[in-house]
Specification:
Layout (H helix, E strand, L loop, with lengths): L1 H26 L30 E7 L7 H4 L6 E5 L4 E5 L4 E9 L2 E9 L8 H11 L2 E5 L3 E5 L4 E7 L1
Antiparallel strand pairs: 1-2, 1-8, 2-3, 3-4, 4-5, 6-7, 7-8
Length: 165
Amino acid sequence: MIALQKTKRMRFFIGIFLLTTLIACGEGTKSGPTSENPQTKNEPTLPVKEVTDPALAGSWVLSGLPQSPTPFSKLYPRQRPVLFIQSDLKLISGSTGCNRFSATITTVGNQLKFADFTRSTLFCVGEAEATFLKAWEKSTKYSLRNNDELIWGTDSVTWMIFRRR
């Protein structure tokens, strides 16, 4: 009897979940011109496909923070930040040198886009992690040099340099 009640309750919650999912999916499929979307049938636009550049895939270790006032060797005397990029999954994870992190990563041209950034919350001594995270936030573009050096920055400033491991 109790098992039957649990089964009915489970079916009810699964039904509610599916119904809300269907409603939510239907919300995003409205088309036609609106004040937010002034497209007309005569002016089609192609969606920008966000992918993660396969050349970024692999393991990278931080080798420089050119904008940091503190020398790199003093910021990271032992453990340096590491990135693991899985381009097929649009996933980036690694270490700030203290805490672990993960996020989604996409690229459009040479632009970097991150979402869903999470990290552990260990207490970190010194300014290394704060310096790393500041440089991460300011980095909007990337370039590759000789396929073994990854540079993050902006059009005019290099914030971070990584070497392939």
